[in-house]
Amino acid sequence: MSTEPYLKQDSNPTPLTFQMPTGAIDAHMHVIGPFDRFPLSPKSKYAPFEATWQEQKEILLGKLGFWGFVVVQATCHGTDNRVVVDALEHMEGRAAGVGSVDEDVTMEELRRLDAAGIRGVRFAFLPHIASETTPTEVIQRIAEKIQPLGWHTVLYFLPDTFEIMEPLIRSLPTPVIIDHMGRPDVTVPVEKNPYFQRLLDLGSRRNDIYWKITSPNRYTRSAEPQDWNIALPFAHELVKQFPGNVISGTDRPHPNMNTVILTGKGTPPNKMPNDGDLANFWIWPAAHKDPETLRRILVENPRKLYQFKYR
Question: What residue spans define the domains of the chain?
Fold first, then answer.
């Protein structure tokens, strides 16, 4: 586990400069802790600050104006999905979840998670956040287990693993979400980026591949909003080619920023991005500052994947 100091999420989001659409879903956020009830996994490679469901509700619903959110199991909690289930139980139908399971998970447990509101499973292939990666043949078998429930598979990977990911994505029996746009190198323009072009081609071959246009701070290694513009053409291309399959969110509480962000705001620089900035300078412009496009991304598209208990 890293010995670097971890950063606490900003509790004061910048006010929005646009109208959040009615029914908007933050489709990618995490609930972490409280650690006395939901301890970190002993395999976790990072130790973030707590971000309880109460805090997330206050910030995302109370201050930013989202209607609800999707709780994605953070890798720091391993396959102990209690933290997600607990959040869903308290959100009165305004939350759905993505869990983390291993091959030994039983159908009884999957049905229990389904009843709680979990709608997919996630696998991460990043060495700085996951001490182990799940073999593709195991992911295939887990996907076959969850397919009857109508769940999807979320994959978070970097370009250097695409040779492994591409055939897996083609073969999975569930809908697939590609996390954080597949983490392209945004310094190479869209039209000259061979990796991103292969992602686009892959998306054209399956109508059930979804894209999270999230976390510009991770692509640019900066918490400064003016540095995020370089990543917008990638989001715009996904919105153009797959308008019904793009979702977005804040990634709050942005775990692991100390290993990612080089440039922060202020003096001394704070490497933690502000959630209001992410809404104003990423989510809104990624939708071309068009209310109908924003509604599609934040309201219509997430509801294709997540059956919220309350509308």
Answer: 25-305
- Structure token digits, residue 205: 């071959």
Q: Taking Cα atoms as reference points, which of 24, 92, 86, 34 lies closest to residue 60? A: 24
Read off the tokens for 2.
């890293």
Starting at the edge strand that comes first in sequence, how are the strands of the sheet with 118-124 ordered?
A: 25-29, 68-72, 95-99, 118-124, 152-156, 176-178, 209-212, 246-247
Architecture of the domain defined by 25-305: Alpha-Beta Barrel (3.20)
Lowest mean pLDDT among 138-147, 233-242, 255-264, 289-298: 255-264
Q: How many residues are there in the chain? A: 311
Q: In the structure encoding, which two tokens stand for residue 197, read together?
A: 């072009």
pLDDT of residue 131: 41
- pLDDT for 311 equals 54
Count of beta carbons in the 10 Å neighbourhood of residue 170? 12
Residues 6+ apart with CB under 8 A from 279: 13, 16, 18, 20, 64, 250
Kindly list the catalytic residues: 251
State pTM to two decimals: 0.95
Q: What pLDDT is attached to residue 309?
A: 60
